[in-house]
């Protein structure tokens, strides 16, 4: 009778370990898929930036610093190798884009240019898609991190190689500040 109890407990433990491992693999793959989705939208934005820069150059050729800062921020973000590095570089890119649109405010002809308006509208749509994909990424990361950090999963996560994944967070205090809108 004792042997059956021991075998039953061993079977339950084995079943839990198997379920934990397979569930964690599914969640880790979900994290990777969510990051890849976010990456696709960010790549789409990176592809729009050179067109935007060229359009602005024609109207604001003496704004070279702003245009160069945007180009440099784009390059640094594309070259980021880890998720943490990519996330930190994204803050600089966002700031450079805001600066570019601030410059555009000083040029009425540019603001009325159809190419600029189309690019600005497309970029706005991409930014919305990026925001949605960031929310999805953070939700999947939260599920995965919770799974590997709560007991008894935290005892199994290390031996199976599951490590905490980074959340996408706002990188700077400037981005956290309230937006001031004036007419």
Protein architecture, described:
- The radius of gyration is 23 Å and the shape is rod-shaped.
- The protein has helices spanning 2-59, 64-79, 83-105, 108-112, 114-149, 153-160, 173-176.
- The longest helix is centred in the N-terminal third of the chain and has 58 residues, at 2-59.
- The protein has a domain at 42-112.
- The N and C termini lie far apart (82 Å).
- The protein has 183 residues and is mainly α.
- The chain has 7 helices and no strands.
Descriptors:
183 residues; mainly alpha; disordered C terminus
How does the SSE layout of this entry go?
Blueprint: H1 2-59, H2 64-79, H3 83-105, H4 108-112, H5 114-149, H6 153-160, H7 173-176
Brief rundown of the structure:
By secondary structure, the protein is mainly α.
| Principal-axes shape call | rod-shaped
Structural class: mainly alpha
Estimated share of beta-strand residues: under 5%
Radius of gyration: 23 Å
Q: Helical proportion?
A: over 70%
Biggest β-sheet: count, sense, barrel? none
Helix-strand string: HHHHHHH
Number of continuous helical runs: 7
Low-confidence runs? 178-183
